[in-house]
Amino acid sequence: MRSTFSPFCLWIPFLAGFTYANIINACPKGPQESSGPGKTIYVQTNEQQNSIVSIPIGHDGKLYGGMTTTTGGRGGDSIDGTTNKPAGPDALSSQGSVIVTDKYLFAVNAGSNTLSMFRIGETNSTHLYMVGKPAIVPGEFPVTVAASVKRDVVCVGYTGAKAGTSCASFTPEGLGQMKQAVEFDLGQTTPPKGPTNTLAQVFFTANDTRLITTVKGDPNTNKTGFVSVLLFKDSRSSTFESLDTRSSPSGTAVLFGGVNIPDTSDLFITDASFGATFLNLNLTTDKVSIQRKLVIEGQKATCWAAYSHARESVFVTDAAANRLIEISEDGSKIMSTLDLKNGDPGLIDIQISGRFVYALSPGNGTTPAAITVVDSFQGRQIQHFMLNKLGAGKRSQGMAIFE
């Protein structure tokens, strides 16, 4: 499949109210929604001047054009424990460094210990408007964020010398003060040395009653990873209980990206040491236990996961393998494997909209960053969208969709 992307041209807006500079717009544009803001995919560049790349999604599922919006913060690189050098690609070693709610986007700034909040444009969802100023996170090296619209609360996970999670309220006027919810004694540095022994993801359970944090173990030092479960005080509260509940499910080692299984209290969480797990969250004890373990043959670092409502399955990616693995939602079997032939060295963050799967490859500095678009019903790649003209390279990480 040949790479499919549009030629780029510089476009400088002079509209009042835009909070960003360095806007790049691609031309010509592809098929878009006839009315409303349209679908958009967002990627974080994670550069020294951190930015969000916004790319419209056409009716055909393909990506067209794009622009960048600065976050007001700095990106960051963790340290690769095998080389003692900056870790990009997979610079943050996390899932969920950028997330979207119904009308807001949140992005971490690992290098400046802040969180940025944007309002998504009501008539064009590629347009982002910063709300207030980036909020200071009371920890070091934030890598993952989760938001609850039901409770108007946003939580950030950070994994440096001061590791843990902190949460704040949010309103149309901006973010409240971040307050620490949980502290994790990882014995890390800032920036952290990984990818093991670091936070992987924070996310809320499907009913917004609990905050889940996945923390990777380190098999080389016999350090056990765990899942942290933090309960809200009551059904309406935006504050948490004072202590979390931690579980180390049997047979797991490097727990990473997780998704909720619809209409259940079950969790699907990848494990970079062997593949994927199907876990049950006990709503009485808040303990997490393993129900099923799936070893993925030939895997090297299966870390990211996304749930497909269209196929009732989970897709996972591997940072060192250029393929998509589809797994049944109960974690019992591999449903499909798609080996991609587009030259990417591996895939990290993944998002799904309808039948279309979007997988980010940050490249490696020589191979440019790109998003592969796959039609999950046909089981084939339909586009390989290059990101270098939009300022995204091997440090890029995090991806979210507005639909």
TrEMBL record:
UniProt keywords, alphabetically: Signal
Region (Disordered): 68-91
Keyword Signal: yes
SUPFAM superfamilies: YWTD domain
Cleaved signal peptide residues: 1-21
Name assigned to this protein: 3-carboxymuconate cyclase
Organism field: Penicillium arizonense
High-level lineage: Eukaryota, Fungi, Dikarya, Ascomycota, Pezizomycotina
